[in-house]
Amino acid sequence: MTEPGLMIQTMEKTRKIPWRGVLALIGGFLIQLTLGSFYSFGNMMTYLTSYMRQNGSPDLTYGDFIVVQSVWGITQGVVMPLSGFIIRFLGVRPAMFIGCAIFSAGTAATYFTLNQSLWQVAFTYGFVSAFGQGIALIPTMTIGMRWFPERKGMAMGVVVGGFGGGAFIFNQIQTAILNPGNITPEGTYFTDPELLSRVPELMLILGSVYMGVQLFACLLVTEPEPDRELVPKMDDSEDRTDMLMDQTDGEVYITPKEALKTREFYKLWTTRFCAVLITQSVSGFYKAFGQTFIHDDHFLSFVGAVSSIFNCTGRLFYGLLMDRSSYRTAMMLELTVLTVLVSTLPVTSYAGRVMFTAWIWGVYFTFPGTFSTQPAVTTQTFGHKYGGTIYGFLFTSDIVNNFLVGALSHSLLKYGGWEAMFLTLSVFSVVAFLVTLSYPRNPSPELFSTKNTKSTDVEGKPMPRKSPIIKNISTESSLPKVLEAEHESNGLLTSNLTTLPEER
Q1: pTM score > 0.70 for this model?
Q2: 8 Å CB contact between 96 and 136
Q3: DSSP state, 246?
Q4: Which of 9, 61, 176, 267 is deepest in the core (most CB within 10 A)?
Q5: Is 361 in contact with 127 (CB distance < 8 Å)?
Q6: By C-alpha distance, which of 166, 137, 167, 68 is closest to 405?
């Protein structure tokens, strides 16, 4: 092809790129970057616990402080199923902004609760922040998928990659402010007065940074205009419901009530339950575990920071893998690798820094696959209309697993040590693998229902409901298309169908 021809072709491709959609992905990435800063909890826990031990809670341990993360997860599990209704009531973009504001306020308010009690810290840093995150999270994902309906896995990978990458930036900010001199803890906890005196102010700094980034990002995120040639006319209330997810173009969909009656929903629920249990445990305890044989705070913070890069790229990798294969293939690969890494993590205490670093980075690259593939497979399985709401219901698993993280970690560490804890976590990974093995390779709402199609055409006129038989045959043969064309011209579809057996 000649050079002018290549230039014309390039210009044509450029015109087809939805640049507002690209900006929406960037904005969604930045918002999730701040929301995902909670992945730095493992780094923050060592500082916050040490501070509280010197300021009114001398008997506090890491096993006790993990309750803050548990409250976070439980709140997320309660809020996410309701977030779809909250978003419809407020509007997509207003909900996103309000959620971001609540998230940032929760972090800043921890400045006041650190000198009070563990449960007050759990309320501000756990409950309030998680409540805001639960409202702001879904709009960033669903708007991205609406801009790129044919590349949902890619869009999800980019946006949620920010969630995984948050700790890369904020781990470094936290350690640079609190421990610039690389002071090592005395035993298990920090005791240096100068280091600990900076902890409360850090919460104000983080809250301010979060809010600034989120305000800028919210300006970038805009919603695409619905294609009126595809979307049937509807009243205003129904339009707001549809705009929560991708526009619906007459496709079959499953309602949340119907989804709760399917095996596929509970397979996704169980897989998320197991994956998040591992995620919460490793992200919460990796630094405390590393401190038992690595006496270098800067190094451990560096491992945590870089792990977020693997968290970010892992989400994109598994999202693209799902686009090119299937959810089942991507998830089975993830769970196989995760089982091997988590079960052998205790061995790193004997092998030293290099193996510990490689294993932590490997775990962080692997477990995020759940978070980039499940939103996409939920809409693929149950349809676009209620995909976001149904995905929110999967977060109810977080209520259970966060209770378990708190209870199991305390008991396992006390009676069996790190070996018992990580081996137990690997069992959950095996369970998730077995569940995923039975998930459909190509799920779709047609597998469950053919009744929830739009009842009006583009002009708002009633549409005849298609027979499920014709719908299924049409994927195998061109004969029904011919019959449908004949029906449109002279209304003989019924007679033709009934006379076919006699002609044979």
Answers
A1: no
A2: yes
A3: S
A4: 267
A5: no
A6: 68
